[in-house]
Amino acid sequence: MNEQIPINSSDILEKLRQEDEKAIAKLYKGLIEQTQKKQSDIFGFGEYVRAKQSQYWNREIKTKERWQEMYKDISVDIKVESRIRRVGMKAK
Fold first, then answer.
1. What counts of helices (H) and strands (E) characterise the chain?
2. Are the C-beta atoms of residues 13 and 86 closer than 8 Å to each other?
3. Exposure string over 11-44, b if 16+ CB within 10 A, otherwise e
4. Contact status, residue 82 vs residue 13, Cβ threshold 8 Å
5. Could you tell me if 41 and 71 are in contact, meaning their C-beta atoms sit under 8 angstroms apart?
6. Contact 12/6 with Cβ under 8 angstroms?
7. What is the pTM of this model?
8. CA angle 18, 72, 30 (to 5 degrees)
9. Which of 8, 15, 22, 46 is the most buried (most CB within 10 A)?
10. pLDDT tens digit string along 53-74?
11. Which pLDDT value is given to residue 3?
């Protein structure tokens, strides 16, 4: 944000919100890809799978080491929702 962009229109704020969501999704995707290359599930996706899909875990994965191997090949869908709030005023 800078003072060169007028943010006095709902259309402009909506466009900024959409661009913000795209940038955040790209950032998260890059971070996840880095952790997958290192086989390091820092987000705990494996624990979530083990807790919510225990039958799948017991049948297919079984161990933490196996999960680390599988983690590098899984696909992750990222959906970002953001809001821009107008707070306060700025006098010209």
1. 4, 0
2. yes
3. eeeeeeeeeeeeeeeeeeeeebeebbeeeebeee
4. no
5. yes
6. yes
7. 0.75
8. 30
9. 46
10. 999 999 999 999 999 999 999 9
11. 63
